[in-house]
Design a protein that fits this description.
Elements: E1 10-15, E2 20-23, E3 26-28, H1 35-46, E4 50-55, E5 66-70, H2 74-84, E6 90-93, E7 100-102, E8 123-125, H3 129-135, E9 141-148, H4 152-162, E10 167-172, E11 184-185, E12 187-193, E13 196-201, E14 205-206, H5 207-226
Parallel strand pairs: 1-4, 1-6, 4-5, 6-9, 9-10
Antiparallel strand pairs: 2-3, 7-8, 10-12, 11-14, 12-13
Helix pairs in contact: 1-5
The structure holds cytidine-5'-monophosphate.
Cytidine-5'-monophosphate binds at residues 14, 74, 93-95, 97, 126, 128-130, 144-146, 159.
Length: 228
Amino acid sequence: NTVQPATGLRITITAGPTREPLDPVRYLSNHSSGKMGYALAAAAAELGAEVHLISGPVQLAVPAGVQCLPVTTAEEMLQACEARRNQTDLFIACAAVADYRAEQVAEHKIKKQSGQDAMTLTLVKNPDILAQMATGSPRPFCVGFAAETQNVEGYAQDKLLRKNLDAIVANDVSDPGIGFGSDDNRVTLLLRKGEHTEIRPLPQNSKQQLARQLLLELLTFYKEQQQP
Ligand code: C5P
């Protein structure tokens, strides 16, 4: 009966896309598969953590030992995360949250306008769930993801500081063999150590293997930070 690396830790993970309705039949969303977030949840449960997965709409089975709360919109995801704040030691934001939502959701299906070739949708910014979790109190240890197509480490470093995170996982989504929808991923982990950021590239791996490796690194860093 060995003690596992994450025994006693409560980990909340967001995963998948959010879906922002325009009217009763249409929405804005993105291609996030949720695979990375679900792999992290599975790995965290295997490592002994109490895991809560807050998931947008995806086609994946909930991993063994994981509690899943399905949500649709960014605002619902934020409410679900806030509801878990007091019971979260580690917060990992893996979801691809829609940056904007429709200012007004039409009550009835929006009709084609005859004689009008263009239409305008007014969008408003969604809340930044991760940034809000990292500024409120009590503040969990906060980990973000940064999917970039250029200057990957530079932009990830900016996000780490701007969103007040402890760590960020950066990946290059311009590489078709890795990232969105793919089973493989290659990431760089950035750990915030006071004024200094430690940059740790991890080898390319299946999302399963990578999730386990990432969590082990994050758990070590988390425990170091808890030392007085
Ligand atoms: O700023 P950007 O969207 O690239 O930041 C990505 C990170 O922030 C991811 O960890 C993502 O889950 C999180 N995020 C969030 N809420 C948003 C936008 C991004 O939690 N509205």
